[in-house]
Amino acid sequence: MTSYVNLHSHRKPRVEGEIAIRNAYLKNVNFQSIQYPVSIGIHPWHVHKTDVEKALTLITNNLNSIIAIGECGLDRVINTPINEQISVFKAQINIAEQNHLPIIVHCVKAYSDFANLAKQFHNVQFVLHGFSGNSETLKMLLPFKNVYFSVGKHLFNPLSNASIALKEIPFEKLFLETDTTNLLINNVYIKAAEIIGIEETVLKNQIFNNFEKIFINKKK
């Protein structure tokens, strides 16, 4: 039976057969006691209050225990200067590139900035988590072979950009997630399959294949 892949979560797996990539934040984690995939990164919200060099060292020292770097990225709504955010984001992209790891990206009103980096680092696989861009943004990003899209809670609002974009995202570029919500990943799959108009099992198989392609096989 194919597993549910939860691309980005702040909780332990809660559904039978769920593969949840849990965001561990920048803290000392006892990886030996964790039985699920973990990602760590410098979130743009935390850049201004983080010892960046120490955080980058923490990431580098735990590369064998993580499945991805993130969430990290760019956010033009916060006060931290965008150039400072880009510098920290690029440092993490460099680590990802050198170690063949994908990146889980937080991006808010900074898609053009992100696109410039995705073009520059074409060997790195980026997954835009919680994607809520409009059709024009999606049109700009779809040509990038190294950019994927993950959607979740916004699918339950039929008027959201995510609900509209879901029908336009190619299956081979799609992921689903629960993020910080209380949603169960199986219910997100049910909703996504309903919106797209396909069988849930077909969706599960495709997303699992996507997961294997960029999170598992990429490291081999």
Short characterization:
This protein is an alpha/beta fold and 220 residues long.
Structure, explained:
The structure is a single chain. With 220 residues, the chain is α/β, with parallel strands linked by helices. The protein has one domain (4-219): TIM Barrel. Helices cover 36% and strands 18% of the residues. The chain has helices at 52-61, 82-99, 111-120, 135-141, 161-166, 185-196, 200-216; strands at 4-9, 18-23, 38-40, 68-75, 103-108, 126-128, 147-151, 174-176. Strand 3, helix 1 (52-61) and strand 4 (68-75) form a beta-alpha-beta unit.
Distance between the termini: 24 Å
Structural class: alpha/beta
CATH homologous superfamily placement: Metal-dependent hydrolases
Strand content: 15-25%
What's the alpha carbon Rg, rounded to whole Å? 16 Å
List the helices and strands and how they pair.
Blueprint lengths: L3 E6 L8 E6 L14 E3 L11 H10 L6 E8 L6 H18 L3 E6 L2 H10 L5 E3 L6 H7 L5 E5 L9 H6 L7 E3 L8 H12 L3 H17 L4
Parallel strand pairs: 1-2, 2-3, 3-4, 4-5, 5-6, 6-7, 7-8
Key structural traits:
220 residues; 8 strands; eight-stranded parallel sheet
